[in-house]
Structure formats: C-alpha cells, structure tokens
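To: structure subgroup
Subject: Chain for Friday's discussion

All,

I'm putting the inputs and outputs inline so they're searchable in the archive.
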Amino acid sequence: MTTVIQQVWVQRYSIGSLLLILTSGLLSCGNLPMSQLNLGFNVASIGDIQQKRQVDGEVYLRGKVENRAPFVGNAAYQLQDGTGKIWILTKQALPKLGDEVLLKGEVRYKSIKLKDLVGKDLGEVYVEEMEQLKRTPVADQGK
C-alpha cells in the first residue's frame, strides 16, 4: 500500500513540477520584444502575401505601423515588415505610428479599373483584421 501511495505522490509531484517550469517559461517570454517572440503561429511575410495574392486566405502578420487612415466606421493602417508594406483594414482602435502588431486576418483584393487603362487592373491586396493578438506600443519597445 505504501508503494502505491508513494508512486502516485511522485507522479503528481513530477507533473506539478513540469507545469511550474512550463508556466514560468511562458511568463518570462512576455519581456521579450515581439520580433524575438514566436507564439507558435505561422507568421507570413508581407512580401509573400503580395506576390501570391491568395485572396480569402487566413494569415498571421507581424510588423510595425507605418501609416494610419481613419474612416467613418472603419480604419486602416499600413503594416511594414522586412519584406514590404500592406494595408490592414480594422474596426478596432488604430494602433499608433511605430507600434509593433501581431494580428490574424483575411487576405482580400480590391480591383481598381480605369476607363483610360483598358485591360489593366490597378487593384491592391490588403488584409482585413480579424483579431489583434499583440500590440507593443512604441514607448515600450527596447525596454
């Protein structure tokens, strides 16, 4: 009987220790800059999205806010990573210039055709934000 109780206690103690180690490791990641933090998402590069133009695909993006455009009811901000820039359409509050953002969104394409340029499409790929997963304000970067 003592052996059974001892084995159960050792198993619970081992699982508790493992959970404590994993939890402390995750909590310590909160101090890393977003560029060094991989949250298990397959983060796409903006350059790949613009080249592939896979419309209606779900993506995760990470970058720095370079431009903002408030609209009535919606807003947009331009996100930049090392491979390019893309506009993000959002219904949330706009991040500030320089903020780093990690988001989940849907790739969209808006066709723009002009009468003078028959057969030419000047459309642009953009991302409709579904969820902002992390935002690091410009003031907090480098701390």
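Points worth raising on Friday:
DSSP finds two helices and five strands in the chain.
The CA atoms of residues 105 and 129 lie 4 Å apart.

D.
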